[in-house]
Amino acid sequence: MRDESGAVIRLEDYRPTDYLIDRAELDIRLDRHATRILAKLHLRANPAGRPAVPLVLDGDELRLVSLAIDDVPAAPEAFEASPERLVIHAPPAQPFTLTIETEIDPTANTKLMGLYRSGSAYCTQCEAEGFRRITYFLDRPDVLSVFTTRIEADRDEAPVLLGNGNPVAAGDAGGGRHFAIWHDPFPKPCYLFAIVGGRLDKVADRFTTMSGRAVEVAVYVEPGKAEDATYALDALKRSMAWDERVFGREYDLDVFNVVAVSDFNMGAMENKGLNIFNDKYVLASAETATDADYANIEAIIAHEYFHNWTGNRITCRDWFQLCLKEGLTVFRDQEFSADERSRAVKRIADVRVLRAQQFAEDSGPLAHPVRPRQYREINNFYTATVYEKGAEVIRMLRTLIGDDAFRRGMDLYFDRYDGTAATIEEFVACFAEASGRDLGHFAQWYEQAGTPTVNARGHYDAEAKTYRLALTQVTPPTPGQPEKAPQVIPIRLGLVGGSGTEIALSPAATAGHMPGVFVLDGPSATLTFTNVPEKPVPSLLRGFSAPVRLEIDLEEDELLVLFRYDSDAFNQWQSAQTVATRAILRAVGAGTPPAPDRRMADALRHFLSMRAGSDPAFAAQVLALPTEADIAREIGHDVDPDAVHRARQLVKVELGAALAAELAELYSQLSSREPYVPDAAGAGRRALRNACLDLFAAGRPAEGEELAMRQFRDADNMTDRFAALGVLSHLPGAARETALAEFSERFRNNALVLDKWFSLQAMIPEPETLERLRGLMRHPAFSMGNPNRVRSLIGSFAMANLTQFNRADGAGYDFVADMVLALDARNPQVAARLLTAFRTWKMLEPRRRAEAEKALRRVAGTPGLSPDVADISGRSLS
Ligand code: BES
Ligand code: ZN
Predict the structure, then answer these.
(1) Measured CA distances, 200 to 1, 119, 219 (Å)
(2) Which ligand 1 atom lies nearest to the CA of residue 267?
């Protein structure tokens, strides 16, 4: 393996390279089994490095064919080459060139890192350390080079040849071959390098930038699928316009290409001018993609495009600074989607993801700071903490200093660090300067792991008309950080009167901060509000202003006041979730149906009558009960997933029965015969209608099944068809099996749709699911070699089937452990990700905990593990 296992990379050990590579000229001759790469590198000593030391270039599974120094073949004693390294013992003192010829086999590349084949196309994935699988290089983000790339291939096999930057030449290469030359004038780290070669169709358009430059934009897909890429192309143009409007950032090359491939480890990659995408996040049609798929495509197209400034023009000094590009770019794509769709609904969706992924990570053995201090395998640090919490930290920064200072800080950052590889310190300093604020303590969010709990207690003095709010914070220990310091927590807040009036906040209460925001930066604080005419209900953490858990013991009636009246939509939703969570927790405790909760049903009924028509997308979020994982996290320890499932089901059945009439009525009102359009308004109506169907079917299973079956068969779009199938999948019996069979027959030629079918079945909360899964692995469409297939079938089971992955007999763990080991030999990155399903094992009840630990130990003890899986299994057990 590439790293001696156990090698730890530490932030404090950072030092600049001893050499720089100013220019890289690559000549890549594509061949299925023997691709030759001729790399001419223009090097010089780094003034910031050590003088006259050997040059050590990174490699990974490389074979050196030839080597020349300053165009003279290198003497054997002048260098040492292994698959992992090329060492030049005594490089010339003056700037020099190395001409390195390597040969690789793209067909044998099952790790999907470096240059590989996806279907009949050639493509690359270089982040984080894949470029070293193409040629020897200083494969780290602080080495910026200007790349010129000549690509040559068989004309029939690969009529389309794409590279980074602008196309500069193309022509015939003789013998049925042709070539294209691409030049990227922007110095970049090699992780942003990419090429594509293949037989591809495209949709193309022209985008005129704010300064009037014309850019050719195109999306390339498998032949015959161009039509399905038009939504992605449209999302791209909207992203380009948004970045100009909101951040003042203009695109900088003559072309911008997106290529969709079907074998891809991640979602997508921001290679300069040549983004490469998992086709799942490009291809969409009404018949094959859901509204959620469309929203994902829009968000990911935007994300990768936005990297052009946050990641590419300004990159990371080292991989510890990963959140500098990823957290910031997630923040930017979230803002984009909020602007394009509904801000409140987007916020709720993002917080759901944050809690499900990041809070789970943060409370278990894999917890780490937004900027980690050490790693063994960098691929394992593309995490919810780096991404989602990284985005929250930036959102808090904006809340603290205000929109204007935030924008000035961003401008300063772009100005000052354009063309460089920057650090978090440099980034934060821009905002300190722009706002005149000391952000030293705030920056601790990058260093300290764990989710703070904020506790709030209110007291109203009717005589003095004052309201006092006592706040405390505490962060539980995480691996390697036993002691925690208080964080800087912006708490956006308001006081709501019993009949819904927003009570004016006395200015003294939040003095020195942005209006309506209190900043808790010590272990505790007390706020006093004066002139409060009645006992208020506090609305805290509005808009989820900080990534913390909030403890506040409001009465159910008080929560319902917020649900009904809060001017903050997030807290309206949150209070409904809290009421539902409490009902489910009571049912877990009792083990029997709780006394029917009339108030909750009444409140929902009233809410639907007021809001279903005007804000269906929001109403759909309100109707969605907290997930089993949400409830498990709330319980926190000794969790019995079966008890959680039963309790949630009881509450759902009860609520569905209580609201059956209203749900059925709303369902039919929302039925539309208009043709499908994947816009936010239509998506909102469909989301609410399908939420109604789901809840109705829980309360009235027989009628629900009939309704779902009818919708399943009559739907003219995937959103409605798949939602109906989802409802049916939870109702055991013949109808479910019939629908599943009809679905797979109808879409037998569409792998991306079959992924939905795999995933749905993997999530059925029944003991038979494991057997079903084993059967599905033999389905002709399934393959362990394709990451999308693996994630949809095995990943959905491990990550989204709480009761069956966590079977009391341990069979779920054993199955996933077997799959991780089987995959590891082929694709360690995907295997390691699958293994993170165990990240919450410590909060289970003792029997399951023991079974999970046994499975983890079996993985950890297997000889010959990849560094990826060794790292995750090792840390999970610590
Ligand atoms: N730079 C990443 C892609 C990446 C991730 C490369 C991990 C190497 C290792 C890209 O910008 C990214 O973040 N993609 C996300 C989707 C995004 C919308 C959050 C992904 O692939 O999941
Ligand atoms: Zn990214």
Answers:
(1) 35, 11, 10
(2) 21
